[in-house]
């Protein structure tokens, strides 16, 4: 689904780390010619059954259910396209391409949420799967997070909220690893929910709860 070539055991796909042989984007040409067109909001098949799905969400709203918009986080999206090691080089060597990819991420997120909200969907939460930490903290620098991720999160959240008619929108960030140096960064753009706080990665949940009493 992310355009990767991976090596796995015969007859097995889960329960181990695959070997990543090749990722979809090695440079500008891969992005421009192969991947960017696939992420266009004008692809007709993208909207198959969308209106019917929105009608089902409106039914859930009438039942008082919590409405969450899932979205791949910027770092997870970039890493899936480029690879966990190569993306670290690309942040330094080709920042312009990073911004092009994030602009496409934003444009598609804007298109989907705008259409859903135009069909009467009201969100309770915007949720991103980010996975930007390991057991010693962030996988990229705080400055990189601020340059390449936070402006796009700030923009999509403001855009969704502008159509919420005052309804409260929560922002949840999901990341594995030790989140100690990530929380304050994401709170800069309004994160008020976080998960999963892995104890094995060194998170002290009680200490974090005392430090951030308003964080769910």
SS-based structural class?
alpha/beta
- Provide the spatial order of strands within the biggest beta sheet: 3-4-7-8
Cα(first) to Cα(last) distance is 31 Å
Can you tell me the residue ranges where pLDDT is under 50 for at least 5 consecutive residues? Answer: none
Shape, per Cα inertia axes: globular
Number of helices, where a helix is a run of at least 4 consecutive DSSP H or I residues: 9
E-strand count: 8
* Cα radius of gyration in angstroms: 18 Å
Oligomer: single chain
Strand content: 5-15%
Question: Helix content range of the residues, please?
Answer: 40-55%
Description:
- 44% of the residues lie in helices and 14% in strands.
- With 216 residues, the chain is of the alpha/beta class.
- The model has no long low-confidence stretch (mean pLDDT 96).
Q: Key features?
A:
216 residues, alpha/beta, four-stranded parallel beta sheet, two-stranded antiparallel ribbon, 9 helices, 8 strands, 14% strand
Write the layout of secondary structure elements.
Layout: E1 5-7, E2 19-22, H1 28-35, H2 50-62, E3 68-72, H3 74-82, H4 86-93, H5 95-118, E4 125-129, E5 133-134, E6 137-138, H6 142-148, H7 150-162, E7 170-175, H8 183-187, E8 193-196, H9 205-211
Parallel strand pairs: 3-4, 4-7, 7-8
Antiparallel strand pairs: 1-2, 5-6
Helix pairs in contact: 5-7
């Amino acid at each position: 689904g992310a355009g990767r070539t991976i090596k796995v055991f015969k007859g097995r796909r889960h329960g181990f780390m695959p070997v990543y042989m090749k990722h979809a984007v090695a440079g500008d040409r891969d992005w421009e010619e192969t991947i960017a067109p696939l992420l266009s909001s004008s692809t007709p098949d993208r909207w198959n059954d969308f209106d019917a799905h929105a009608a089902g969400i409106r039914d859930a709203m009438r039942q008082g259910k919590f409405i969450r918009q899932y979205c791949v986080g910027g770092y997870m999206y970039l890493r899936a396209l480029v690879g966990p090691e190569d993306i670290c080089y690309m942040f330094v060597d080709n920042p312009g391409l990073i911004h092009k990819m994030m602009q496409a991420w934003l444009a598609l997120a804007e298109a989907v949420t705008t259409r859903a909200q135009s069909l009467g969907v009201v969100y309770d939460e915007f949720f991103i799967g980010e996975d930007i930490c390991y057991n010693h903290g962030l996988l990229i620098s705080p400055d990189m997070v601020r340059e390449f991720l936070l402006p796009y999160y700030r923009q999509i959240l403001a855009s969704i909220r502008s159509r919420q008619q005052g309804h409260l929108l929560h922002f949840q960030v999901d990341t594995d690893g030790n989140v100690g140096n990530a929380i304050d960064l994401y709170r800069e753009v309004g994160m008020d929910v976080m998960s999963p706080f892995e104890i094995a990665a060194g998170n002290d949940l009680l200490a974090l709860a005392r430090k951030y009493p308003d964080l769910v």
